[in-house]
Amino acid sequence: MTSQLLVSYHTCPMEEPGEGLSGGMNIFLRGLLRTLGRRGISTDVLTRATGDTVEITEPFPGVRIFHVPCAFPDPPTRAGAWESVDAFVGNARLLLRGEGVVPGAVSAHYWMSGVAARRIVDAPMILSYHTVEARKKPVAGVEDAPLSAVRRREEANLSRAADRVVCFTEHDLAENVRILPDLAGKGVVIPPGVEGRFRRLIPREVARSYAGLPGSGAIFLLAARDDAGKNAGAALRAFETVRERWKGKVTLLVAGGAEEASDPSAGVIALGPVPHEGMPVLFAASDVVVCPSLYESFGMVPLEALAGGIPVLVPEGTCWGGKVRAEGGGLAYRPDDPEGLSGAMLSLLADPSLRARLSVAGPTVAAPFTWERCTDSWERLLASVSTIRTPP
Description:
With 392 residues, the protein is of the alpha/beta class. It has helices at 24-38, 78-83, 85-99, 111-120, 148-161, 170-179, 204-211, 232-245, 279-285, 300-307, 319-327, 340-350, 352-366, 371-385; strands at residues 4-7, 43-48, 55-57, 63-68, 106-109, 125-128, 164-167, 187-189, 218-223, 250-255, 268-272, 288-290, 312-315, 330-333.
């Protein structure tokens, strides 16, 4: 019997973050699947295929990923993904019958996966929203996504259908329950971990030389895919202000998004999507990591930066904003202040001793976040909900 079925419909866990619809969720799922496999907990993963045939991969011991054909759009869009859900569900049910897969539990990641999971298999469902539509902050000049109303409806339905709901912080759980009262009593807080290579960064000068980055001046790192919700525009505007007011050399290094956004004359180096294995070098090369997103269920980039002792800049009102204000490792700025982010950037440039103190505090803040602890909690959760039901 498969210990659990995991549905990650809109993106394969093994896809690199920063491309298409992939992001921090992929990093989380990859880390979780790897460590569950080491514990002997077998997992079958259902994700969408990009072609017309079923593909099966085994990236880790005990983990099988089934790529299910469903006429998924290329390039991927959320609207196109929603249109392909019915085909995914039908083919996934046929596939599970053919493979004889009878899971003790199903975990679903993101709302579309939850919608699919409850139609694919009759098993206790553990849901991770990752983000909730009703909690997203409006971005100036950007209209609501076409699926916004559909997503809000389905996320409310899922709050009633799920047996357990995993959130990554107490802050995230409390806010989700406030928006979706039917989650009350179902929530479990399980923070993700961070890989050891982010805790042992190479020297800054070595990293800059290796990556072909400027050897002098301060480097701010922005790691975010091309998504309005990531609020990357705020970082670009703040950096322009910093360049106007700071006499020394400064560079904004952008990982994710379009490589064409590079403008060396303006101090901006855009690398395009960067494989996750390449991120430790970029963290090591940077003086400060800028994380302007106004809403994240967690935020892997701040965690990885803190683990390596790189100070972070995060908005107040977010889980990381509250954490660095209380424990150190970075600065929290007021996102409603037009000069909040640029002011925080200038403060760190002007005060090397402050940067040093934040750098020392970061690894301590990140220390509790390990994949071992995360997997312990998931293992207990799976054991508490798993049962055998007749497949549909």
